[in-house]
Each structure stands twice: as structure tokens, then as C-alpha cells.
Amino acid sequence: MNNSELIHRTxxxxxxxxxxSQQRDQSPNPLGKSTNPIRFxxxxxxxxxxxxxxxxxxxxxxxxxxxxxxxxxRTRPDPVIESGSNLPxxxxxxxxxxxxxxxxxxxxxxxxxxLGLKRKSLRIVVTGGAGFVGSHLVDRLIARGDSVIVVDxxxxxxxxxxxxxFGDPRFELIRHDVVEPILLEVDQIYHLACxxxxxxxxxxxxxxxxxxxxxxxxxxxxxxxxxxxxxxGARFLLTSTSEVYGDPLQHPQAESYWGNVNxxxxxxxxxxxxxxxxxLSMDYHRGHGLEVRIARIFNTYGPRMCIxxxxxxxxxxxxxxxxxxxxxxxxxKQTRSFQYVSDLVEGLMRLMEGDHVGPFNxxxxxxxxxxxxxxxxxxxxxxxxxxxFRPNTEDDPHKRRxxxxxxxxxxxxxxxxxxxxxxxxxxxxxRQRIFGDQKDSDAASSTSSA
Length: 450
Description:
The protein is an alpha/beta fold. Helix content is 44%, strand content 14%. The protein has a domain at 123-300 and 339-364 and 398-417: 3-Layer(aba) Sandwich (Rossmann fold), CATH 3.40.50.720. The chain has helices spanning 3-26, 37-44, 46-75, 79-82, 132-144, 198-201, 213-232, 268-288, 312-321, 341-353, 370-380, 405-411, 419-449, and strands at residues 92-95, 102-105, 123-127, 147-152, 171-175, 188-191, 235-241, 292-297, 300-301, 326-329, 335-337, 339-340, 360-362, 367-369, 387-390. The strands form five sheets. It has a seven-stranded parallel sheet with strand order 5-4-3-6-7-8-13, sandwiched between helices. A two-stranded antiparallel sheet has the order 1-2. The termini are far apart.
């Protein structure tokens, strides 16, 4: 065999091996393009794995949701369910703690938080939040860590009551009358908007006194705020009044008492307006499953009260400071019960966070006649203050004292500040406002004269 033949055979052998290798690569593969089974499953069977993943996720989500739903109804039943309604538990639209994300939660807005977990910050609207009671409530809510939106038309409210919150990112103030609708995203609504003294609630500056301002606020304003609560799934608290009992024939007054109200009297626009507001709230609760809370507030006093609003405590304190006679209407034997504002705010917050609709009496069961109140004011401010008697006003209740047994039992609430302890705190505030304003007025007069 010569060299040329050996080279020819070697070349043919190499060519045949290359052709056989090429034929093997082009032959059909029962597992597809890849002979590696793991690569085959992940590359060519992706759809099957996708279906398996979706099925596993669906099963896991359903199991967890069912467990949470079962646990929620065992530990904290919805008050709507407790009342016999077949309505499903509501879902509340809320903002997360950072305020940038909006999500859904099946927990009620004011629900209790298990021990060991940080309480979620709520977004709360307070109508009438620039007023006497409203501003103290705003202080407590912000101190608790919530974000608060105050809605007020400043008919009786004052910006000075809230000026210490200006610049706080958790505080917003909107000049708005609740008789006009408003759209907000909130978790809870405290509806306090309404002039509460005869001097104010008998007057409507918009309609030139043709209709009681309190009646329109209580009816139209309450309807608007109930509608807002229904749209966003918020819990709604109505601040009603002891005036729904009228001139009571039952003493003390329990929540079961229907009252003795003159429907055509001079005070009826306020009395009947609040009774209507309670009716509307219960209609929304029964008809729409809205989480409603109703508080019936008895006489309340404290710093930031309007100085000349016609209410007995503010009248006596302002008159004593100004060295004027204390005006007592009638024989002075009418009785009232006086609670300090911090006690009321505590009761309102407990009611909102609790599981019971109400109504609840929130007041101090300590009972004073008007003469006894005048004597306490004399002790605190001026022992030489004189008492002047005047004819009694129409439909003035003779007795007013709350039965707070229900609030004690279901809310664990009762007032802790006595009249003799709380009154000096109010006197300090009034003294600063009365004589501070007077000094400013004198200075302005001197400047004008010059």
C-alpha cells in the first residue's frame, strides 16, 4: 500500500464519520430538541408548570382567607350581624400607615388590635372640629397617631382652637358647611357639626333666620355625612344630645326613655333635629349595614367654650370674671349635670372603638341646681358675686340627669373630673381670653385715638 492510497482511505473515513454525526443530529428525538429531560420539562412544558403553580396559589389563598374569616367572626362579631341582619361584614377602604397606598381590609376601622401588634393609624374626619368639643377631640386623635381632617364652616368654631396643629402633616382643615356634600376617603367620621346653644341654633346666617340653622344641619348635614360613610365604608358616630328627652317625666333619664319634647316650641328645631338625625342614622344602619354609633351628650364645660353663647356655665363664669351679677332664670331650682370636656372626649372615643351602636348617655350623674352652680362659681372666682333672678325661658327643662349604667357596663366609661376640679381650668382659659381680648381692644382704641 503506497502513501497516496493511505491518505485517500484516511480522508474517506473522516468524511464518513462527519456524515454519520450529522445524520444523528438531524434524526427525530422523541423528547424534543433536547435530550436532557430536566431542560425539556422547564423549556418545552412551561404551560403545564404555569397551570400547576396557579392551582397551588389558588388553593393556598383560599385556605388562608377561610381561616382568617372564621377567626374574625369567632373573636369579634360585626355589630350588624349581631343585630340579626343577614348583611355580610363590610370591607373598609383605608390608607396604609405610609399614606401612599390604598388597600382593602376586612377589619373594621375602629377594631381592637391584638396585643403585640402596632395599632394602625386611621384617617378620621371630624365635622365641627374647630368648635369647643371638636377641637379637644382632634387633640386626642392626633396625639394617638391618627390623621385628622377637620370640616367646619366657622359659624361657632374658631381657628384659634386648632392653631397649634397648623403645620402638622397629619392635620388638615377644610372650610366647608356639611349641608353641602363633600367627598373624602376616611376610616371614621365623628359628626359633631351643629350649633349647640340657643343663641346660635335659632339663627341661620345663610337664610336670614327664616329657618333654624340647627335643623338644617342636623337633617341635611347628617344625611350628607351618612352618605359619605356609606360610599367609603367608614364608621359613623353621631353626637346627639340630652335635649332629645325634652322636659323629662322620667328621672334620671335612661336611653330607653322616649322623651317629652314639644314639637312646635322655640327649642324644637334643635330637639327634633337631633331626634331626626338619630332616626336617619339608625335607618342607614338597618338598611345599608352602616356601622353607626350614637352618643347623647349632657351638659359639658371646659376651656374653649364660646364665652357668650347663653349656656349656664359659660354665662356664670364670664359674668363673675366681669364683676357682673350671675343671672339665674326662674327660681333656680332647675337641675343640670355637668361633665368636663376631657371626660366626654374619652367617652366618644370608647364608643367609636367599641362594638355597640347605642344610643349611650354621656354625662356626669352629679346633679346641681342652678343656685348650687352659682355658689360653686362664687367659691372659685368671686365670693362677693351677686345673683340676679330673671323670668324663666320657654320650654326650659326642670330636671336633667343622665343614667349612665349602660355606658359603665358596655363601654367601661364614667366621668372622673368633678365640677370643683374642672371649673378652675375653665376659669383660667376664660380669664385669659376675656382680659387678653380687652387689652388688645384698649390698645387698638388708643392707637386709633392717637
